[in-house]
User: Which sequence fits this backbone?
């Protein structure tokens, strides 16, 4: 691959390109400088013309110079009466005056004054520092209207910053062009599979620009205070109130994870280890809450048990009950997140070979003993895994606490308030970075420790015969509990639906259709932008996921492990952190993206990519590499193999990664709430706004609309992939 | 489907797998050179890990040589990707496209080459007829037996009329009976098309029965190249002798060499061996090899060495008799046993050989 000849040619090409690139850069730089100088000169001449002839007004005029010349200032020199070549300086403040006195004695200043004396402008080439910003001096003569007499000389101190920015951008482009050229020509010269080489290049660029860079920015800016390196932000973030929020998040996570794991295990046990009926229905309901939009369950709980809740207030007449706080949060999160535990444990209990239980029964163990000594111990890794997954999700959860936390403090909401309420981006970054600590820990324990201790053994033919472990009475009790929960979940959705048709929940329960019209007309723009953004992200995310999976499974290249780890990272990064990191990183050149739809689409893609990649990797691992080799061998190039062989073969994973991205983008909130703009709004944020303003009817209509869209998306996907396994994979996170 | 057959030249090819994390590099193929003549079927034979599959993959383009050149029909293809090479591979696991039916599988290479639709149909039909699959065109590969899948893979490779047909242990996933049938069939088709073919296997019977020439490899190096009978009857090393067939070895001292033959001493007696390996010389340790069919059982003290019959295995057309001697257990093949008097298990016997049929080899285990 690397021959001397090729290397020499490569470096020659690089040198030629660098020379041309450098030449273009310097020419453009000087022309930018020249034109900027002209523009500035004209502006200053104009400014000089505005100088009053009445010396009494001069001080006012000097103070206005600061506003028309941001960061700059001016000194007004009046020729002294005794000697017209000696000037009396007048400045709006001490710093400016001091700067002038420093400069006044130099040759350059003398030249400037001399020019002005002869009614000519003079732009100094020397830079000076004013309050830390570089400025250039410009000498402008002020004359009477007849241009006969010199009234004074205005010395402007004009900041450089504006054209320095342009120059930096130019330099960025020049360097970028060079890097692009070097990498492209390097790949096409030295890599045998240019397609793969380019894909790796693109993926690496994606990972660096949209994952590493924003997170690094968030990290860096959390160590800055008023532009200087400082630990102030962290000191404040680690102060009592915020630590309380961190502890609040962890406490909530522990509670939710524990209750969700119990409920999830209950469902999984009843469905996969007893002879209960309607298992398909139960399983479907147990997965429903995962795909329900944020705020919807909270909304429904507030309608039922809030301050004016149907059950608490109207039916039970309770006065002092409050759903807001830890209790309500654990409740809502459990309903929303037990499906994660269920899906994990369903996999575990399905994978447990019933022969083991039969063997234990055969050795004369009682049913309870079998459960205690065989089933439960074998399920322990699964239980731990489920617990950690729910814990991570609970900590990252933003929507539920936002509406329901009340006085209880959690970190994700705290970070949001820090950013939106106090406009303190650095503080928000620090708080959400704090959140990263427990989530990353849980994520890595789950990944690298628990998942490796799984007892699921796929050896020979699994015994599909069920061993009934629960005595009839026990089974009835468990089944009843499951059905009770199912009924409750369904009633929550029923409440949202009912909310659409109620005039004013809590006060006036009369039937109305007006909510629908109002919500849809006020939400029209949001619905449109939410749909179009999700629709844009979906195919891109699906394709990138499959291409990355293909590269990760089939190709070897230096740094593959690192790239893989970085691409998977957003899985463990709370949405709040990603959102804050994105506004920090992309609100300035060269990536000025805040406020555009693009940044929202990118955030969707980056966040949902890991799940898509995992699906693609799992499905590619099932495919014999010689299938792709055969296609290659028969004349197809790398791209054609991907299109005609790989993509059709991983179709289920492809479609499910797309539908996953679509659904998650439709129901996104934690990251997107920071990135939306007036032009690009999101339905979930609108639901939140309606709920905050107690317009529950409107919120219900939008939530219902969102649920319908999500359900439709899943319906379409199920039609496209008649394999329920893909469905399960899609929603388990 | 006839096309002018091409030659394949492997010239001093080495493939080294760099092993990161401080482990030693693996030399998968070490300085291998050979030429496959146009229309010839050559087999790469060797134990697993000997580099035969790596060699084939380098010819196909799935792997690149670290050093050396590969030529197909005179063109240096050493760094060309697989899709730019005039080869077609039949894979061990077939590599059939599960999302296409049999006809689509076979037509894939033609579609990639943008052949007209009518011609594709015609050629696919002919290729399927050639392998006896005419009735299965619409089937999905998942619903075919192993042998049928094998035929689809073969048709798919043949239909594009490759300059070189590469077969990577194509029969290893089939049961014994089918393997024998397919062996014959592959050879028949290859001969009728006159296509150049390179076949990889670790099965010596397969290699013997279908090759024009066999290349025996071990530890990345080519040990011997020759016709099946040449390799079997005139191996140059103990390894090749043992790998291509059952064999008994007797340590001997070389007395003199003379052209192709050699005189040596075994248990004080002079043996005029029928042939010898080139490396055999007076004073160097040597062994005498004898195939089971050149060994005979006689009364005690009559033969070269005495021993006890341990076990007789009846195979119909022959009996394999295992005789325990001081040189270990020797396998003697008794052909056409019907009516012959066979020494019973436990009998004391002697083993002798036909001097014209034995060969002297250098004694090193390689």
Assistant:
């Amino acid at each position: 691959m690397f021959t001397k000849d090729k290397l020499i040619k490569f470096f020659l090409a690089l040198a030629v390109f660098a020379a041309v690139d450098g030449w273009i850069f310097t020419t453009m730089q000087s022309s930018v400088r020249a034109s900027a100088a002209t523009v500035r000169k004209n502006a200053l001449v104009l400014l000089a013309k505005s100088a009053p002839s009445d010396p009494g007004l001069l001080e006012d005029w000097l103070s206005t110079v600061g506003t028309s010349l941001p960061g700059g200032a001016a000194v007004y020199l009046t020729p002294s009466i005794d000697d017209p070549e000696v000037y009396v300086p007048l400045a709006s403040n001490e710093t400016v005056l001091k700067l002038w006195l420093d400069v006044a004695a130099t040759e350059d200043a003398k030249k400037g004054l001399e020019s002005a004396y002869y009614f000519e402008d003079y732009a100094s080439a020397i830079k000076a520092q004013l309050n830390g910003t570089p400025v250039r001096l410009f000498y402008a003569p002020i004359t009477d209207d007849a241009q006969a007499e010199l009234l004074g000389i205005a010395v402007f101190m004009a900041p450089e910053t504006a054209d320095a920015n342009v120059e930096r951008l130019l330099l960025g482009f020049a360097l970028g062009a060079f890097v692009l050229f070097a990498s492209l020509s390097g790949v096409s010269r030295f890599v045998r599979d240019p397609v793969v080489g380019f894909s790796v290049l693109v993926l690496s660029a994606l990972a660096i620009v949209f994952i590493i860079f924003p997170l690094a920015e968030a990290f860096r800016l959390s160590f800055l205070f008023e532009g200087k390196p400082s630990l102030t932000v962290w000191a404040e973030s680690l102060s009592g109130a915020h630590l309380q929020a961190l502890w609040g998040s962890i406490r909530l996570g522990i509670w939710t994870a524990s209750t969700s794991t119990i409920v999830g295990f209950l469902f999984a046990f009843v469905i996969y280890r007893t002879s209960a009926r309607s298992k398909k229905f139960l399983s479907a309901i147990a997965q429903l809450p995962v795909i329900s939009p944020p705020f919807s369950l909270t909304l429904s709980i507030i309608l039922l048990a809030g301050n004016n809740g149907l059950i608490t207030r109207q039916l039970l007449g309770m006065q002092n009950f409050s759903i807001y706080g830890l209790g309500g949060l654990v409740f809502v999160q459990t309903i929303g997140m037990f499906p994660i535990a269920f899906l994990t444990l369903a996999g575990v209990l399905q994978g447990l070979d019933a022969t083991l239980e039969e063997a234990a029964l055969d050795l004369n163990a009682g049913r309870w003993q079998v459960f205690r000594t065989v089933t439960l111990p074998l399920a322990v890794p699964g239980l731990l895994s489920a617990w950690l997954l729910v814990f991570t999700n609970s900590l990252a959860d933003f929507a539920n606490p936002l509406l329901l936390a009340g006085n209880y403090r959690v970190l994700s909401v705290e970070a949001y308030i820090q950013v939106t309420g106090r406009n303190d981006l650095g503080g928000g970054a620090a708080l959400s970075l704090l959140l990263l600590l427990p989530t990353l820990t849980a994520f890595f324990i789950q990944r690298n420790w628990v998942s490796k201790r799984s007892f699921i053994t796929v050896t020979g033919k699994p015994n599909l015969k069920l061993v009934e472990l629960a005595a009839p009475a026990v089974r009835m009790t468990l089944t009843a509990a499951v059905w009770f929960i199912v009924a409750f979940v369904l009633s929550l959705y029923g409440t949202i639906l009912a909310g659409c048709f109620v005039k004013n929940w809590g006060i006036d329960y009369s039937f109305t259709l007006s909510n629908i019209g109002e919500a849809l007309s006020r939400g029209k723009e949001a619905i449109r932008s939410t749909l179009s953004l999700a629709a844009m992200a979906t195919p891109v995310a699906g394709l990138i996921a499959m291409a990355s999976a293909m590269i990760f499974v089939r190709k070897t290249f230096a740094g593959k492990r690192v790239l893989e780890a970085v691409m998977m990272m957003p899985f463990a990064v709370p949405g709040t952190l990603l959102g804050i990191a994105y506004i920090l990183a992309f609100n300035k050149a060269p990536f000025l993206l805040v406020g555009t739809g693009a940044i929202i689409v990118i955030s969707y893609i980056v966040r949902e990519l890991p799940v898509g990649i995992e699906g693609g990797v799992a499905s590619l691992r099932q495919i014999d590499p010689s299938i792709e080799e055969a296609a290659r061998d028969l004349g197809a190039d790398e791209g054609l193999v991907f299109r005609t062989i790989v993509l059709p073969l991983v179709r289920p994973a492809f479609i499910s990664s797309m539908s996953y991205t679509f659904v998650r983008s439709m129901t996104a909130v934690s990251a997107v709430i920071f990135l939306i703009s007036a032009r690009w709004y999101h339905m979930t944020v609108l639901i939140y706004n309606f709920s905050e303003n107690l317009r529950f009817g409107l919120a219900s209509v939008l939530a219902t609309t969102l649920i319908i869209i999500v359900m439709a998306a899943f319906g379409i996907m199920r039609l496209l992939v008649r394999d329920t396994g893909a469905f399960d994979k899609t929603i388990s996170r | 489907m006839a096309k002018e057959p091409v030659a394949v030249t492997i010239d001093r090819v080495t493939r080294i797998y760099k092993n990161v994390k401080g482990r030693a590099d693996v030399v998968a193929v070490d300085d291998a050179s050979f030429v496959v003549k146009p229309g010839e079927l050559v087999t790469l034979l060797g134990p697993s890990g000997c580099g035969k599959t790596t060699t084939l993959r380098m010819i196909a383009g799935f792997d690149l040589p670290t050093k050396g050149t590969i030529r197909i029909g005179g063109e240096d293809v050493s760094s060309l990707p697989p899709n730019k090479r005039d080869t077609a591979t039949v894979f061990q696991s077939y590599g059939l496209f599960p999302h296409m039916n049999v006809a689509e599988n076979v037509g894939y290479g033609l579609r990639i080459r943008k052949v007209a639709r009518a011609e594709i149909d015609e050629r696919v039909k002919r290729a399927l007829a050639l392998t006896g699959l005419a009735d299965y065109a619409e089937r999905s590969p998942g619903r075919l037996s192993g042998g049928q899948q094998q035929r689809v893979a073969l048709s798919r490779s043949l239909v594009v009329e490759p300059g070189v047909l590469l077969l990577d242990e194509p029969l290893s996933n089939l049961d014994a009976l089918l393997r024998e049938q397919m062996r014959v069939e592959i050879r028949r088709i290859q001969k009728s098309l006159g296509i150049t073919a390179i076949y990889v296997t670790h099965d010596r019977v397969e290699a013997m029965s279908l090759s024009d020439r066999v290349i025996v490899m071990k530890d990345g190096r080519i040990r011997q190249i020759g016709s099946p009978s040449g390799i079997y009857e005139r191996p140059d090393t103990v390894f090749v002798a043992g790998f291509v067939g059952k064999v008994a070895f007797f340590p001997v001292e070389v007395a003199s060499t003379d052209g192709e033959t050699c005189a040596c001493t075994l248990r004080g007696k002079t043996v005029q061996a029928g042939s010898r390996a080139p490396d055999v010389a007076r004073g160097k340790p040597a062994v005498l090899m004898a195939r089971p069919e050149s060994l005979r059982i006689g009364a005690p003290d009559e033969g070269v060495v005495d021993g006890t019959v341990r076990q007789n295995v009846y195979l119909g057309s022959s009996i394999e008799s295992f005789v325990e001697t001081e040189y270990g257990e020797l396998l003697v093949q008794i052909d056409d046993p019907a009516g012959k008097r066979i020494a019973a298990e436990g009998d004391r016997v002697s083993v002798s050989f036909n001097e014209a049929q034995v060969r002297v080899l250098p004694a090193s285990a390689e």
User: Anything to note?
Assistant: Confidence is low (pLDDT under 50) at residues 724-733 of chain A.
